[in-house]
């Protein structure tokens, strides 16, 4: 990436999916953030690319009244300038989660007109579907706490990531808490020896040495690590060649506390010599074991 390269991140999605948290996080990460800017003004904004900050995040959602009519034009104007790298991040969540979030915050939906929330959400999805269709990253935040979303964004859109052509996000999760919908590649570790059945190890995690030693007693551990690492070493350059900017590798076990956590750390360590930004996250490590 040229030192003169500008990065514009368009943050959009469904109301209640976390765009406010995302913009605050990006601001903390050094982005200049402009929220709810009329899209018809974007072409003029980007004409003088030299005057733009290196990292600019534009918040675009249903409150931006010209989102349905001017989003494509705005995006094309950004992509038409060689010095600017554009990325569209679209946040969404399932209806049950959106309904719960609106109830908990007691915040009205931007399109509120007296109709039920889910009816309005359905209308919003219809309006912004053309935006979703052109998004570079679709992120389902249904299982994300605000802290999880913050960690994800900092890992994906930090300065280290911007200096790399592709960011690789290696995350652990528990199948009983749901499959990560943002995952591009998924590996299942539930066949490995399970520390959950050891009373002393159950409350611990795969970050601790005695848990690692217990799992390492399984004769299948090292062949599995070798096979996964070799596969990823072969495939990551191919994803990069196809223009993939962000790749999420999800490693799962039953609860997301032990086996998947250990495997994420081991795999990330084995891939750290590759020319990509390798980040780790343990989605369910703080969820109750049981």
Protein described:
The protein has 290 residues and is an alpha/beta fold. It folds into two domains: 6-162, Rossmann fold (3-Layer(aba) Sandwich); 167-282, no CATH class. 39% of the residues lie in helices and 19% in strands. It is built from ten helices and nine strands. It has helices at residues 19-28, 42-47, 67-79, 95-105, 117-133, 146-156, 159-162, 209-216, 221-241, 259-271, and strands at residues 6-13, 32-35, 55-59, 84-92, 137-140, 167-174, 185-188, 246-253, 277-282. The strands form two sheets. A five-stranded parallel sheet has the order 2-3-1-4-5, with helices on both faces. Strands 7-8-6-9 form a four-stranded parallel sheet, with helices on both faces. β2 (32-35), α2 (42-47) and β3 (55-59) form a beta-alpha-beta unit. α1 crosses α6 (146-156) and α9 crosses α10. The N and C termini lie far apart (46 Å).
For the record, the CATH architecture of the largest domain stands as 3-Layer(aba) Sandwich
Order of helices and strands: EHEHEHEHHEHHEEHHEHE
Between the first and last Cα atoms, what is the distance in angstroms? 46 Å
Number of helices: 10
Mean pLDDT: 90
Summarize the structure.
The protein folds into two domains: 6-162, P-loop containing nucleotide triphosphate hydrolases (Rossmann fold, 3-Layer(aba) Sandwich), CATH 3.40.50; 167-282, no CATH class. Helix content is 39%, strand content 19%.
């Amino acid at each position: 990436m040229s030192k003169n390269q500008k990065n514009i991140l368009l943050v959009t999605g469904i109301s209640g999916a976390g765009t406010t948290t995302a913009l605050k996080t990006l601001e903390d990460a050094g982005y200049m953030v402009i929220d709810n800017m009329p899209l018809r003004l974007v072409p003029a904004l980007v004409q003088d690319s030299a005057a733009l900050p290196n990292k600019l995040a534009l918040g675009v959602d249903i409150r931006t009244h010209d989102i349905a009519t001017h989003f494509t034009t705005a995006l094309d104007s950004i992509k038409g300038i060689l010095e600017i790298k554009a990325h569209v991040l679209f946040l969404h969540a399932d209806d049950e989660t959106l309904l719960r979030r609106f109830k908990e915050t007691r915040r009205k939906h931007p399109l509120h007109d007296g109709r039920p929330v889910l009816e309005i959400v359905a209308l919003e999805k219809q309006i912004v579907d053309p935006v979703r269709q052109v998004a570079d990253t679709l992120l389902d935040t249904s299982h994300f706490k605000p802290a999880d979303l913050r960690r994800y964004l900092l890992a994906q859109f930090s300065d280290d990531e911007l200096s790399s052509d592709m960011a690789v996000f290696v995350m652990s999760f528990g199948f009983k808490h749901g499959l990560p919908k943002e995952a591009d590649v998924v590996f299942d570790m539930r066949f490995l020896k399970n520390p959950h059945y050891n009373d002393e190890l159950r409350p611990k995690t795969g970050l601790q040495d005695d848990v690692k030693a217990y799992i390492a007693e399984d004769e299948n551990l090292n062949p599995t690590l070798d096979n996964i690492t070799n596969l990823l070493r072969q495939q990551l350059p191919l994803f990069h060649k196809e223009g993939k900017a962000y790749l999420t590798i999800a490693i799962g076990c039953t609860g997301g506390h032990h086996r998947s956590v250990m495997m994420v750390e081991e795999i990330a360590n084995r891939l750290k010599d590759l020319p990509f930004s390798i980040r780790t996250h343990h989605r369910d490590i703080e969820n109750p074991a049981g």
